[in-house]
UniProtKB/TrEMBL annotation:
Belongs to the glycosyl hydrolase 16 family. It comes from the Eukaryota. GO terms for molecular function: hydrolase activity, hydrolyzing O-glycosyl compounds; xyloglucan:xyloglucosyl transferase activity. Gene3D superfamilies: 2.60.120.200. The active site is at E104, E108. Its EC number is 2.4.1.207. This is Xyloglucan endotransglucosylase/hydrolase. Contains at least one intrachain disulfide bond essential for its enzymatic activity.
Length: 290
């Protein structure tokens, strides 16, 4: 009885710290939204994994039960093997409420023909405005094994990491008049769906349904609340001049190397798209290293 009680107390303490007690309880933290008949949990050794599948009838989708405002979300994903042209797997966070001012942080994995690179497509919406696409080739075969994908969100920046390494940062430039998500809670979603209208080679390569069902695996969903400086009540109350969230040199180096070596598209350098019109403001701020 005493042992049970202390276990319960440890559980409560972990929840209060905003830490996830165990990777083996993913089914308690997420719920299936659609395609439940196409989705199953299974044990992979000690780790509980979730298989999302897609066939010509339906895809599948889950979401986290909890919502959060500032924190770090991590997930290991093993993408669809073989010919995944037209198939898109996602992990994204999104606020609830009206679409017209929703916030969203997107990671979408664009499938491809066997042996061709899978693209990590990222985007960030603030107050309903997106159009901030950056795409990267992954420097490994994301279908051969699980890799860790992380969204880190605090008042100063949003950081996307792959296997711990930063690939994209979207900084808070509110002082220059660029909107940043600072007040709406978000929830994690993961899904597998058919997007052969546009996903692969600009929509030229279609989904080969003879290969269905397509399956992507998700495991070890972890979430940790953003930790403010000692004495500060929560990250949103961190003083403006605090250095708590300054990017360190290692992260800056990782971002530069991802940009130089793996980036295949950046809205900030798409001159065709902004032909004759102004680039979004954050593009020049970023270039100036602000
Ligand atoms: C798919 O492979 C082709 C050929 O290597 C490549 O050009 C393209 O960028 C890849 N990704 C997508 C999403 O089409
Ligand atoms: C689960 O993910 C967390 C955060 O990325 C990591 O620290 C931990 O080692 C992972 N656990 C397992 C069992 O892989
Ligand atoms: C931040 O500003 C406050 C109030 O102006 C000041 O008391 C504090 O010392 C500053 N902290 C840093 C790290 O500069």
């Amino acid at each position: 009885m005493a042992a049970l009680l202390s276990m319960l107390l440890v559980g409560v303490a972990l929840v209060q710290l905003g830490m996830h007690p165990s990777a083996a309880t993913m089914d308690e933290d997420i719920e299936l939204i659609w395609g439940a008949s196409h989705t199953y949990f299974f044990m992979d050794g000690e780790t509980e994994s979730l298989a999302l599948s897609l066939d010509d009838q339906q895809g599948s989708c889950f979401r986290s039960k909890a919502m959060f405002l500032y924190g770090t979300i991590s997930m290991e994903i093993k993408l669809v093997e073989g010919n995944s042209a037209g198939v898109v797997a996602t992990a994204y966070t999104i606020s609830e409420g009206p679409w017209s001012y929703h916030d969203e942080i997107d990671l979408e994995f664009l499938g491809n023909e066997t042996g061709q690179p899978i693209t990590l497509h990222t985007n960030i919406f603030v107050n309903g405005v997106g159009g901030r696409e950056q795409q990267f080739y992954l420097p490994f075969d994301p279908t051969a094994d699980y890799h860790t994908y992380t969204i880190e969100w605090n008042p100063k920046y949003i950081l996307i990491r792959v296997d711990g390494k930063a690939v994209r940062a979207f900084k808070n430039y509110e002082e220059y008049g660029v909107a940043f998500p600072t007040w709406q809670q978000q929830r994690l979603y993961g899904s597998l769906w058919d997007a052969d209208e546009w996903a692969t080679q600009g929509g030229r390569v279609k989904t080969d349904w003879s290969e269905a069902p397509f399956v992507a695996y998700y495991r070890n969903y972890t979430f940790a609340w953003c930790q403010p400086s000692p004495g500060v009540s929560w990250c949103g109350a961190e003083p403006r001049n605090s250095s708590r969230f300054d990017l360190d040199q290692r992260t800056l180096d990782e971002l530069r190397s991802a940009s130089d070596q793996h980036k295949v598209y950046d809205y900030c350098t798409d001159h065709k798209r902004y032909d004759g019109s102004e680039f979004p403001k954050e593009c020049s701020l970023q270039r100036q290293g602000l």
